[in-house]
Design brief:
- By secondary structure, the chain is an all-alpha fold.
- The protein has a single domain, classed as Ferritin (Up-down Bundle), CATH 1.20.1260.
- The protein has four helices and no strands.
- Helix 1 runs antiparallel to helix 4.
- The radius of gyration is 16 Å and the shape is elongated.
- The N and C termini lie far apart (41 Å).
- 26% of the residues are buried.
């Protein structure tokens, strides 16, 4: 891995204990959801929607879902007095690169729709499921930081109670 594919930044805290740490985690969720858009867009734009409408519809629906996740994180950040940052240059490094603020066990490339692209999408999805299961067992964020936005959304209610 070269410096262009390095993590966006090292998490300063893994537990949400203050309003500022909640805001930080929500910004990380925005960055993660933003990170997932180019891989899905590349796959979608490589498809011929006339010849393969089912695949186009599925990839487009996943893309829209990722954008909705980003919107939810931004709305939550606004609700707790934060300011979503979508124009930061650090959100624009090239691909392939590892997931921001978390797992660097694999790098996410930009691929046309293919079995390889589907494998990447499945890895992203499975990492999310494994992280959520592990965090649910521990009832706290993991030591290595946020890997997906899902855990951040799950911990907002408990974090809000801790921040009071």
């Amino acid at each position: 891995m070269n410096t262009a594919t390095a993590k966006l930044e090292v998490p300063s805290s893994t537990r949400i204990t203050t309003l500022e740490s909640l805001r930080e985690h929500l910004q990380w969720a925005i960055e993660l959801e933003h990170f997932t858009l180019p891989p899905y867009l590349c796959a979608l734009y490589s498809l011929d929607a006339v010849r393969n409408p089912e695949a186009s519809e599925v990839v487009a629906s996943v893309l829209v879902e990722e954008m909705l996740h980003m919107t939810l994180a931004a709305n939550l950040l606004n609700a707790v007095g934060g300011h979503p940052r979508l124009d930061s240059p650090r959100m624009l490094p090239g691909y392939p690169r590892c997931l921001p603020h978390g797992d660097c066990s694999f790098e996410v490339p930009l691929l046309r729709f293919s079995p390889e692209a589907l494998d990447v999408f499945l890895k992203i999805s499975s990492m999310y499921r494994l992280k959520v299961q592990a965090q649910a067992l521990m009832e706290m964020p993991t030591e290595d930081g946020i890997t997906t936005a899902g855990p951040t959304f799950e911990y907002v209610p408990s974090a809000r109670a801790n921040v009071r």
